[in-house]
Amino acid sequence: MSYPGYPPPSGGYPPQGGGYPPQQGAYPPQPGAYPPQAGGYPPQPGAYPPGGGYPPPAGGYPQAPGGYPAPPGGGYPTQGGGYPPQAGGYPPPGQPGGYPSVPPASGWGGGPGPGYGAPGGGMPQGYPGGPAPGQQPMPAYPGGAPAPSPSMPGYGGGAPAGPAGPAVPAVNRGYRGSISDYPGADPLRDVEVLRKAMKGFGTDENAIIELLGSRTNKQRVPLVAAYKTTYGKDLVKDLKSELTGNFERLALVMLKTPAQFDAYELKEAIQGAGTDEACLIEILASRDNAEIREINRIYKEENGKTLEDAISSDTSGHFRRLLISLSQGNRDERENVDVSLAKQDAQKLYAAGENKVGTDESQFNAILCARSKPHLRQVFYEYQQMCGRDIEKSICREMSGDVESGMVAVVKCIKNTPAYFAERLHKAMKGAGTKDRTLIRIMVSRSEVDMLDIRQEFVRQYGKSLYTSISEDTSGDYKKLLLKLCGGND
């Protein structure tokens, strides 16, 4: 039997090798496939772009000097709200670097939105303040500065080159979760196992651990309804009466959908004793647009107020602005990278921080919360090349307090998400006392996303496996269920 649910079944996220589109046969694509370039691939010999210039999108959007057309849709961001547009799951159009862009006829573009870049578009050639000591001067943009436009500056510099070396480029390596669908799982049979484990004197904790730890989220969530249908009782209440401590809490959150769990954690982070700023940033910086929108919907449904209102009432200043920006779920999710635009954004960050008295946090906020993750990895690389300093170090020099830690966390998550979570797990377990809430949240939320990558990063950074660290830092049934989520030793 199969049951609708969230997240997608194992093997479906990210998609397996083969990517998109799945038409029969090899390259060139069949008629009507993607990209719809006459004559198949590669383009006509003799020029790049083909035909002496890539045709502008329908509608006559003005083309910037350099010949690269503005993105379709006339605005930013472009995502159409598809569910869920997982990062890395949709191969970038064309070759690395994102050229050619998707034609408007494909319907990929979104509606009008804010311009992709500062209005007016007039940027100085070369980097402000000149090159850092010992570095070669940066050449001016080919094609000149971008053409001004009322809604969106054109892309200067002609067709963008591929990424020059951003950290951790998106690579589709198949399913990277530690838990896969259990073959032939049936909620009605599974709830019999749970009922038998809790019936009578004593509790068979091992049976509960084995069942919950070998089912994916979409196989666990239907157990609540199946239990009530079969026995007329509430599974959550029965588990609460039988289990205790962190083992109880871990088992119960495994019965929530990812969005329900995230909404619950955000509420606890905001309304608990003191605000857990790191939890707020962790969730909002690492989820994609569709996930954040679903979190917003559930948060309002369950709490009678919007997530934005809750954030506004519990935080302040630039940190509040950062959280509200991230909570909109409107980040650009295109995979292509325009190197010249990345250089412009690197200039803006330099001008807003290192190259001025004081710091313009709003400029950092605008770029870090709106640009796509592949684009930002290129921006961070260009920033390092430009001023000889890592973007994280610049943020630490220019900011302080919650906004500093928030911005740094966003940068780390964008650079290398598994490494960010490996660091969060290490901090949760090191020293006196364990931050069990953080440990549970990450182990549950990443077990069907990138746990295998997190385990690799953990070994690389700390010299011992995540499995060993959990074994040393936890105990009993709680440890057993966490190790099931971990999925193995490295």
TrEMBL record:
<dbReference type="InterPro" id="IPR018502">
    <property type="entry name" value="Annexin_repeat"/>
</dbReference>
<dbReference type="GO" id="GO:0005886">
    <property type="term" value="C:plasma membrane"/>
</dbReference>
<comment type="similarity">
    <text>Belongs to the annexin family.</text>
</comment>
<protein>
    <recommendedName>
        <fullName>Annexin</fullName>
    </recommendedName>
</protein>
<keyword id="KW-0111">Calcium/phospholipid-binding</keyword>
<dbReference type="InterPro" id="IPR018252">
    <property type="entry name" value="Annexin_repeat_CS"/>
</dbReference>
<dbReference type="GO" id="GO:0001786">
    <property type="term" value="F:phosphatidylserine binding"/>
</dbReference>
<dbReference type="GO" id="GO:0006909">
    <property type="term" value="P:phagocytosis"/>
</dbReference>
<keyword id="KW-0677">Repeat</keyword>
<feature type="compositionally biased region" description="Pro residues">
    <location>
        <begin position="130"/>
        <end position="151"/>
    </location>
</feature>
<dbReference type="Pfam" id="PF00191">
    <property type="entry name" value="Annexin"/>
</dbReference>
<feature type="region of interest" description="Disordered">
    <location>
        <begin position="1"/>
        <end position="162"/>
    </location>
</feature>
<dbReference type="GO" id="GO:0032506">
    <property type="term" value="P:cytokinetic process"/>
</dbReference>
<feature type="compositionally biased region" description="Gly residues">
    <location>
        <begin position="107"/>
        <end position="129"/>
    </location>
</feature>
<dbReference type="GO" id="GO:0005509">
    <property type="term" value="F:calcium ion binding"/>
</dbReference>
<keyword id="KW-0041">Annexin</keyword>
<dbReference type="GO" id="GO:0005737">
    <property type="term" value="C:cytoplasm"/>
</dbReference>
<feature type="compositionally biased region" description="Pro residues">
    <location>
        <begin position="1"/>
        <end position="12"/>
    </location>
</feature>
<dbReference type="GO" id="GO:0012506">
    <property type="term" value="C:vesicle membrane"/>
</dbReference>
<dbReference type="InterPro" id="IPR001464">
    <property type="entry name" value="Annexin"/>
</dbReference>
<dbReference type="GO" id="GO:0005634">
    <property type="term" value="C:nucleus"/>
</dbReference>
<keyword id="KW-0106">Calcium</keyword>
<dbReference type="InterPro" id="IPR037104">
    <property type="entry name" value="Annexin_sf"/>
</dbReference>
<dbReference type="GO" id="GO:0005544">
    <property type="term" value="F:calcium-dependent phospholipid binding"/>
</dbReference>
<feature type="compositionally biased region" description="Pro residues">
    <location>
        <begin position="42"/>
        <end position="59"/>
    </location>
</feature>
